[in-house]
Amino acid sequence: MPDTRPTAILLVGPTAAGKTDLAIALHERLGVELISVDSAMVYRGMDIGSAKPSMEELARAPHRLIDIRDPAEPYSAAAFREDALREMREITAAGKVPLLVGGTMMYLKQLLHGVANLPGSTPELRAELQAEAEAHGLAALHEALARVDPVSAARIHPNDPQRLMRALEVYRLSGRPLSELWAEQQSETFPWRTLSIGLAPVERAVLHQRIARRFEAMLEDGLIEEVAALRARGDLSQDLPSMKSVGYRQVWEALDGDSNLEDLRHRGIVATRQLAKRQLTWMRSWEGLEWVDSLGDDPLGGVLKLVRDFGS
């Protein structure tokens, strides 16, 4: 039987790969409607460090799910799934194609596969895990996870504190591995037929250069001042998901006196490289992902061909 589901396009890639420029070009060429998949861009006032599209770019190509939360309000993958499905239904009902663009891979995973029935987070256990990480290091947490949930440990990078602590938290609260709970999740057919496109430069060294240039540009554009203004509000802390975002965490620590400007530059670039590495690891395991070289001769042409072939 032919697949009669409406079409949706997923444009994913590591940070600094050029996703925003390409998404805007696709909006202007094809009329697709854009939905942001970015865990920092959802927050108002976090513009420079999240590489949020400019006002001019948003005027040319509006992005849904940008600036929908105050940084004091935590936002989750489950909330993203609910919001994204609502926006996708609205776009499809208007006869348009939704294009989801971003690099927060956990958001897309939960969008496509649903949210497992997991225990909620508790401040007490999260504080306990944070203390363990500070006392023994993330490697010790990863080893602890490998003993009780080797499947999740194989999927989670040892330098990913948020996912490490969440997997251990789930095990300690439920007595069952996170991977086991996910496996029990009932698979449902996603309401859209999806074309998944991965945008990344073929050469890793080139991506590292782009990351370094972009973080330096963020500092020049006022990232330190942006974080200082957020700190000055008095209702934000490093424990909030918004302030754990790459770039924001490093600047916050620098403002605490933990590093000078040169050290901040180094730490910010390294943290962003680590983020890109985790994103690429997700992408390599993404079934059916169509790769496009973001620095090739004609990445837009390559993506347009993929869209044409998918629709034929």
Descriptive notes:
This protein is α/β, with parallel strands linked by helices and 312 residues long. It folds into 2 domains: 7-115 and 186-311, 3-Layer(aba) Sandwich (Rossmann fold); 123-184, Orthogonal Bundle (Histone, subunit A), CATH 1.10.20. It has 14 helices and 6 strands. Helix 11 crosses helix 12 (248-255). The longest helix has 24 residues, at 261-284. The relative contact order is 0.17.
List the helices and strands and how they pair.
Layout: E1 7-12, H1 19-30, E2 33-37, H2 55-60, E3 63-64, H3 77-93, E4 98-102, H4 105-113, H5 123-136, H6 138-148, H7 150-155, H8 161-174, H9 178-184, E5 193-200, H10 204-221, H11 223-232, H12 248-255, H13 261-284, E6 290-293, H14 299-311
Distance from first to last alpha carbon: 16 Å
Order of helices and strands: EHEHEHEHHHHHHEHHHHEH
* Gross geometry: globular
The CATH homology group name of the largest domain? P-loop containing nucleotide triphosphate hydrolases
Look at the structure and give the CATH class of the largest domain.
Alpha Beta
- Round the mean pLDDT to the nearest integer and report it: 93
Strand content range: 5-15%
Which spans have pLDDT < 50 for at least 5 consecutive residues?
none
The secondary structure category is: alpha/beta
DSSP helix count? 14
CATH architecture field of the largest domain: 3-Layer(aba) Sandwich
The number of distinct structural domains comes to: 2
For the largest beta sheet, what order do the strands appear in spatially?
Answer: 3-2-4-1-5-6
Fold-level CATH name of the largest domain = Rossmann fold
Helix content: 40-55%
Number of DSSP strand runs = 6
